[in-house]
Amino acid sequence: MDPRSEVLLRQANMFEGQLLLAGLPADDLLSKLPQARGWCWHAGDQAGLDARFEGRSHFGVNAPEQPFTSAVLFLPKSRDLANYLLNALASRLAGGELFLVGEKRAGIEGASKQLHAFGKPRKLDSARHCQLWQVTIEHPPVAVELESLAQRYELTVGDQPLSVISLPGVFSHGRLDRGTALLLDHLNGLPRGHVLDFGCGAGVLGASLKRRYPDSQLTLLDVDAFATASSRLTLAANGLEAEVISGDGIDAAPRYLDAILSNPPFHTGVHTNYHASETLLRKAGDHLKKGGELRLVANSFLRYQPLIEATLGNCHTLAEGQGFKIYRAIK
Length: 331
Hints:
single chain; 7-stranded mixed beta sheet
């Protein structure tokens, strides 16, 4: 069981009534708290929860509509996202209890200071390298609309401007990261047809591809609901249309693709996790047509080329710069 869940269960007598677990892991916690419901924005965790606790977890960027009398927030990595989530929960908990749990190395001690805006927080427990805090909501905030927290920046694709809209918690929130910038400079010569932007984030790459190759069918895929919501905003801001789907890795992607492009993730929360990226490299061939292309950017220190070659055969470096490499391989 996740250590944060273990810390919660040490104080299980505190959780009564209609309890909402926001950002909960896909472990056994819901079986230990049978009156609780979940709110999840990670497609992989949601799939795991649905498989074991069907109907007890809500997926999306907004809190579920069902009422709740207390809530636990599992501290996310992003401080901006934590601010939004705390506001979303506290705004519906006047006089109720809000709990915050997280790992020490994720910054739970500092994050707990955000609870002072709602009342007088207290530390309930410290164990498993985690802390649990609680506050009674004496000063409920006015609920903030998520889109009001979006950040916008502008790019030029070809000779045309492109607006990028990112929401809190999305990779490289409010700015273009160096890896994606390098990949955007090397979009020439892609196959026409059905193209996948894997790990789409705020939709920078996907929108750029649609702008550059308007006749191609484009699918954007990400595990994070805030990312897919951002991608939809980016596409809409530029008058572009594409399919946007939430799913846990390449297994959720369509088959018979003409190309897969990606700046693949290698972090899950505060943890380094190469699973999604390495699964993409191993299974890309299952989703590409014969002659289809995989093109991705990655940190130069990551040994991705042997993994790509084991799946697709010959792989070469298309470009390199600022600590990143672009790999290209044809099935």
